[in-house]
C-alpha cells in the first residue's frame, strides 16, 4: 500500500492529506438544515450532515490529493450513526481512488490488537463468509504497549498489503511529558523511532516501508533528527496550519528524493471558508474554498520540498 | 463514579470485573446456530451471537460482581453490527446495575480526545438535543500523548461523574520495551504513575480518585511499587488467569483497607466451560460454568486481600 501512496503523491505532486475531521460546527448551515429536516436534530441528522459535508469536500479536492485521513473520534462521538458516516466516507473515498488513512490511534495487545487490525485493515470470518468491516488502507497505531501491540497490525498489513503509521512524536504542546524524556541519553521518541524502523524492515514496499511514523509539524528540529533515524519510513505529519506548523518548518521531514513525508491539514482545509483568506467564497461554496486551500497548501509544502 | 464502584465492590465482596471479550470461538454452537439461522453467516449474525452470549453470562453472574469490562475491539471487528452489540451490552449491564468499564484504550489530543470522551462517557449535542452515544461508566485511556490527551477525559469525568483508567504498566510480555526504560533512574511506568496520581488529585471521590490506573497482574513486584506511588488510585488489573497472574500475586495491589484494586478476568470466566475444570457443566450450560468460575476467582482473590 505504501507503493500506491507514493505513486499517488507523485501523480498529484502533492504530499498532502486532507483530514476529514468534520465537527458539526464546521458544517455550513444549509447542509445542517437539509440533514435535520430529513432526520431531525438526532444522531442520524448529525451523521447525515457530516457525510454530506465530507462528500462535497472530497468531490472538490479528490483530483488534487493522494489521500484523506478521517479522524474516527469525530464520528464515534455521534454513536452508531456517526460510525456509519465514517464507513460511508471511507467507501466513497475509495470510489474516488483516494488512499484512506484511518486516524484511529488504536493499540492493545495480542488478539485484541489483531481484532482492531481486522476491523480497520483486514477481513473477519463469520462461518463460511468473510467481511471487510471498515476497510481503510492505513491506520494510526499507538506504541505504548510495545511490539505485542504493533506486530498484530503488521501481520495484517503483510497479509492485506496495507500499512500503519505509528505515533512517534505527536504535535501537541504536552507531547514531551513522556515522549521527550531521556533514556540512555536519547529521548523516548527516538527509541520508538528506532523500533519503527526495525518493524518497518519486515514490511517493505519498494523504497519505503508499509510501517510509517507520525511526527508533528510543530517540532521541526525533532523532525530533522527522526528523518535520519527512520530513513525508509514515510512520515505522516500532523500539526500543519491550525496547530502552527508551516511549510518552511518541514524541509527536513523530506528525503532527498523529495518523498518520505505526507502532511496533514484538517481544519485548514475543511473549514477554510471560515478563514478571512477564503471568506470571499462564502458559506454555500465552502467546498470551493477547500479546493483553493489545498492548492495553496500544495504550493507552500512544495517550496519546502525544494 | 469511583464511589459507586467501591460500594458495589463492598456489597458483593468481590473486587472482580468480568471481561466481556466475546470472540466468536468462545460462543457455544447452539447460540451461533440460532443467530446464523436468523441473520445468516453475516456481521449481523456474529453480532447477535455475541450479544446473546454476553446476555447469558451477565444474567448468570450479575449478582456476584460489581462491574464488567467489554473490550470494544472484539465488537469493532464485526463492524457496525458489532458496535451495536457493544451498545446493547453496555445498556443491558446498566439495567442489571453493573458498573461498565469500556476497555477502549483511546487517546488523542485536545478536541479529538474530547470527542472520544463524549462518545464513551459524556453527551453530545445536536441542535437542541443531547445524546449519550455509548455511555460507559469508565473508559481506559492511553497516556502516550501526555496531559493534552488525558485532560479532556478528566474534564468530562468531572462533569458527568464518570472515571477513567490510564494505562501505566500493561500485562503483556513486551510491555517493558518502552514502559520499563529508565528515566532519571526510574522506569517510564513510574513517571506515568506519578502523573496519574497528580491528575487524580483533581478528580477525587471519597477515598479514591475517579482517575484510576491499569497495572498488569503479571508483574507483581511492579504492582507493589506502583501501589505506593498511587495510594488513592484504583488499580484495574488485567492479566489474571489466562495470562498467568494468580491471586497470590496480587496481595500488594490492595491497600490496607482491602480496596484499591479490581481484577479482570475475561477468557477465564466467559470461556470457563472450555476448561477441564468446568467441563462437567457442558457447552449448553456455559453460563453456569462462568458463574462457578466467578465464585472460584472471588475466593482466590479474597485470599490475597487477607
List strands and helices in order, with pairings.
The structure is a homodimer of 306-residue chains.
Chain A: H1 2-12, E1 16-18, H2 29-39, H3 43-61, E2 67-68, H4 72-76, H5 79-95, E3 99-106, H6 110-121, E4 124-126, E5 129-131, E6 138-141, H7 147-160, E7 163-169, H8 176-179, E8 182-183, E9 186-187, H9 188-201, E10 211-215, H10 220-229, E11 235-237, E12 261-265, H11 267-270, H12 286-305
Parallel strand pairs in A: 1-2, 1-12, 2-3, 3-6, 6-7, 7-10, 10-11, 11-12
Antiparallel strand pairs in A: 4-5, 8-9
Overall description:
Chain A has 306 residues and is of the alpha/beta class. Chain A is 46% helix and 15% strand. Chain A is built from twelve helices and twelve strands. In chain A, the strands form three sheets. An eight-stranded parallel barrel of chain A has the order 1-2-3-6-7-10-11-12, surrounded by seven helices. In chain A, strands 4-5 form a two-stranded antiparallel ribbon. A two-stranded antiparallel sheet of chain A has the order 8-9. In chain A, helix 10 (220-229) links the parallel strand 10 and strand 11. The two termini of chain A are 26 Å apart. Chains A and B meet through helix 3, helix 4, helix 5, helix 6 and helix 7 of A and helix 3, helix 4, helix 5, helix 6 and helix 7 of B.
Amino acid at each position: 500500500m505504501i507503493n500506491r501512496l507514493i505513486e499517488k503523491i507523485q501523480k498529484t505532486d502533492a504530499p498532502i492529506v486532507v483530514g476529514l475531521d468534520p465537527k458539526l460546527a464546521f458544517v455550513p448551515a444549509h447542509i445542517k438544515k437539509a440533514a435535520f429536516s430529513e432526520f431531525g436534530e438526532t444522531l442520524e441528522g448529525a451523521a447525515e450532515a457530516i457525510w454530506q459535508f465530507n462528500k462535497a469536500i472530497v468531490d472538490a479536492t479528490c483530483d488534487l490529493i493522494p489521500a484523506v485521513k478521517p479522524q474516527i473520534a469525530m464520528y464515534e462521538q455521534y454513536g452508531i450513526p456517526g460510525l456509519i458516516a465514517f464507513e460511508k466516507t471511507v467507501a466513497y473515498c475509495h470510489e474516488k481512488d483516494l488512499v484512506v488513512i484511518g486516524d484511529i490511534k488504536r493499540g492493545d495487545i495480542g488478539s485484541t490488537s489483531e481484532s482492531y487490525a481486522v476491523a480497520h485493515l483486514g477481513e473477519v470470518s463469520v462461518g463460511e463468509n468473510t467481511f471487510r468491516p471498515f476497510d481503510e488502507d492505513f491506520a494510526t497505531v499507538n506504541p505504548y504497549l510495545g511490539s505485542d501491540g504493533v506486530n498484530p497490525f503488521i501481520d495484517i498489513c503483510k497479509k492485506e498489503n496495507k500499512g500503519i503509521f505509528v505515533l512517534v512524536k505527536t504535535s501537541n504542546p504536552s507531547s514531551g511529558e513522556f515522549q521527550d524524556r531521556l533514556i540512555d541519553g536519547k529521548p523516548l521518541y527516538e527509541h520508538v523511532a528506532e523500533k519503527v524502523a526495525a518493524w518497518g524492515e519486515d514490511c517493505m514496499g519498494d523504497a519505503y516501508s508499509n510501517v510509517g511514523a507520525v511526527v508533528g509539524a510543530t517540532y521541526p528540529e525533532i523532525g530533522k533528527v527522526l528523518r535520519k533515524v527512520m530513513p525508509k519510513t514515510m512520515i505522516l505529519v500532523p500539526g500543519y496550519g491550525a496547530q502552527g506548523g508551516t511549510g518552511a518548518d518541514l524541509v527536513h521531514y523530506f528525503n532527498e528524493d523529495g518523498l518520505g513525508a505526507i502532511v496533514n491539514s484538517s481544519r485548514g482545509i475543511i473549514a477554510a471558508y471560515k478563514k478571512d483568506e477564503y471568506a470571499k467564497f462564502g458559506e454555500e461554496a465552502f467546498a470551493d474554498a477547500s479546493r483553493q486551500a489545498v492548492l495553496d497548501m500544495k504550493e507552500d509544502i512544495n517550496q519546502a520540498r525544494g
